[in-house]
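With this grant's support, we have settled on a layout for protein records. A representative record follows, to show the layout.
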Amino acid sequence: MAAYRSSFATSIRLAPPEGAMSIPDVPPPPVADAGLLKQAMRRLVGGVVVVTAGSGEDRVGLTATSAVSLSVDPPTMLVCVNRASSTWPVIVKRQHFCVSILAAGHRPVAERFAGIGALRGPARYAGAEWTTMASGASGLTEAQAIIDCDLEEVIERHSHAILLGAVREVRLGGGPAGALVYGGGSFIDLSQP
């Protein structure tokens, strides 16, 4: 398995293509207040996923709202992970991650993987059924969908890493109807009638 490419915090300014407008050197704008940004982003409601990596006793995972499809040609996922999380080094070591899209009723799973109850590692997997995917990572069997990825590229910026994952396998679930979302600092079940 090839190691991921990391863009690290290096920025290279490329010359614009011939005929393209160049961007003038402009000093960076003042940095906004981090607390206000956090409050603002809590107002954006997002779908909830569990991102898992590893197998056996090195299984880890976290709850996130920052998972999107980057491309369908080729199938690629984009996920943001805090580099201080216990999941980050396992993703780097195993070169894979799995995204389980949670449904209404999966709040207990989301809370365990968010660290509520102080559970860590394999203990977070208790109380739910998991499927081992092609990469070796686990997907929540009753999830709305499971997307298994090989780590293709990492962009490290500030506290987080942006993961680009080449999709290996997708499974659509017949799990509970509705979605689990996060907004206003709370998990919210959106049940379909």
Summary: Residues 7-14 have pLDDT under 50 and may be disordered. The first helix runs from residue 34 to 42. Helices lie at 34-42, 87-94, 107-113. Residues 152 and 165 are 5 Å apart (CA to CA).
